[in-house]
Amino acid sequence: MSDSTEADSDVDVERWRDELESKRDEKDDFFAEHPQSPIPPEERDEFGGLEYFAPDPTYRVTATVAAHDDPEVVLMETTAGREMRYLRVATLEFDLEREDDALEDGTYELAAYQLESPNEEPLFVPFRDKTTGQQTYQGGRYMELAPDRDLADGDELVVDFNLAYSPFCAYSETFDCPLPPEENWLEVTIQAGERFE
Known about the structure:
With 197 residues, the chain is mainly β. Residues 1-7 have low confidence and may be disordered. The chain has one helix at 13-33, and strands spanning 60-77, 83-96, 106-115, 123-127, 141-145, 156-160. Pfam families: DUF1684 (PF07920).
C-alpha cells in the first residue's frame, strides 16, 4: 500500500482491507519470529499477535499539504529523556467525518517531520489522540508517509490512520523513542491502527 500525492476517493475498499490485513499478518510474523523483534525473546512464545482496531475506511483521509521551504527545527523528547532534532517539513490538513460521533467532525492538522540530517527517509508523523494511554500506547503512535515526489503547497496526500502503529519502546524499555510534540496532539478519537492496552 503506497502513499501517493494523488487523492483516491475511488479506492477499492475490499482490496484496501485485504492489503491491510495482509500487512498486519506480516507484522505479527516479524514480531513473533524475527531476531530484531521488539518483543523480548523470553516472551515470544506467548506472543499471540498485535491488537488492532477493526479496519475503518473513514480514517483513511486525504490531507492538503502546506510545504515548508525553510523547515524549522523541532526538538522531540524521547522516552529515555533525550532530545532528537527533526525538521518540520510539512503541515497536513484534513477533515474527519464520523457518522457515529458528529461532535468530533472537523478539520485537523498534523505536522510531518524528517530527521535533521539529509536523507531520503519517509515523512514521520507522530501523534497523540483521545485514545492515547487508554486504548493505545501512552507514548503516542506513529505513521510514516512516503509520497511519490517532493511535496508542494496544495498537494494532496493520503493519510491512513489504519496504519498507525506503536513504537518499539511500547514493547521493550531497551528502545528509545521520540514522543509526539504538543502540536501533534489531536483532540479527537482515532480508533484506527494498533491498539495497546
